[in-house]
Amino acid sequence: MTEQITDKFGRPIRDLRISVTDKCNFRCRYCMPKEIFGDDFQFMKQDELLSFEEIERIAKIYASMGVKKLRITGGEPLLRKDLHELIAVLNDIEGIEDIGLTTNGLLLKKHGQKLYDAGLRRLNISLDALDDELFGQINDRGIGTSRILEQIKYAQSIGFEIKVNMVVQRGLNEHEIIPMTRYFKELDGVTLRFIEFMDVGNDNGWNFDKVVTKKEIMKMLDKEFDLEPRSPKYYGEVAKVYRHKDAQSYLGFITSVSESFCSTCTRARLSSDGKFYGCLFAVEGFDIKTLMREGIYGSELQDILVGVWNQRDDRYSEIRTEITEERRQARKKINMSYIGG
Questions:
Q1: Strand-pair partners of 268
Q2: What residues have CB less than 8 Å from 72, skipping those under 6 apart?
Q3: Which residues in 244-269 are b (16+ Cβ under 10 Å) and which e?
């Protein structure tokens, strides 16, 4: 298609985030609290997940609609068997210019080289503290920071471009902001990003009091670091990026709560069981998998998906402060482990 496809607010579609599994080997409390996702929790069966062939077909349609960037998510995507095979076929799709992957990093030494050889070049790695004990508490598996730092350095040695994502929560890990910044300032090719704690799903105990905003974090950083803002690289770039003036490194902010970016959001999300979501905070999705398994493919499916995007009107981060606490609590949003970050 040559005509630009837009939603109800004139936003084009440029990014597709693809969840390949709902399973994870961590139990981070802001994503998969153990009380909900215990040892007896029933994750999806294999036939409920989209196959690699189905993901490829959907990605090709979205590429024809204007998608340039793909991001592979989970759950923990490295738990999906033979993921490098999916990366290889997605990398060959006409129009796709960039593929990234979001991971907790624990299995990078096991799978990283195959993924790189298949064409993957960018990683987002979650790390919420440098302190071993605190990080073990956050991931609720007792996994120490050193294990993830080893994986990061390994991924660096292969050649990956890396962003480290730190979800900041008041009363939990805001005291780690300065140590994290000091550490990653010295790692060329690694960008540290601070993510405001978001109310994704309904199980992570979110409230406004737990949010440490970009403004607050910058106030901490300004006491020690000399930073300058970098202009956005493209329309719809989510992160607000700053450069260390005395180093070759960057840091960024994902400000979904304090400075929403709904007005330029170009992202679609595909759950591991084949549902389209127009927003990380969506309530319900559009079932693509069932249509495909009923025999709807090609141009017929494309016309349907164009119509779905044309009707997209999601802007939850803009209205979060406008709705009452009662309405916000009653809104049954999907969990991040199901749709990816």
A1: 16
A2: 18, 20, 83, 86, 87, 99, 100, 101, 102
A3: beeeebbbbbbbbbbebbbebbbbbb
Is residue 287 helix, strand or coil?
Answer: strand
CA 150 to chain centre: 22
338-to-80, 262, 275 alpha-carbon distances in Å: 14, 21, 10
Is there a contact between 152 and 190 (Cβ–Cβ < 8 Å)? yes
- Please list the pLDDT of the chain residue by residue as tens digits (341 residues): 557 899 999 999 999 999 999 999 999 888 888 888 888 889 999 999 999 999 999 999 999 999 999 999 999 999 999 999 999 999 999 999 999 999 999 999 999 999 999 999 999 999 999 999 999 999 999 999 999 999 999 999 999 999 999 999 999 999 999 999 999 999 888 999 999 988 765 566 668 889 999 999 999 999 999 999 998 888 778 899 999 999 989 999 998 888 888 899 999 999 999 999 999 888 889 999 999 999 999 999 999 999 999 999 998 787 776 665 555 555 666 766 667 76
Asked if omega into 75 is within 30° of 0 (cis), the reply is yes
**Assigned token pair, 228:** 């300058």
Determine whether 142 is exposed, middle or buried from the number of CB atoms within 10 Å of its CB (0-12, 13-18, 19+).
Answer: exposed
Helices 145-158 and 132-139: crossing angle in degrees, nearest 10, is 90
- pTM, two decimals, is 0.92
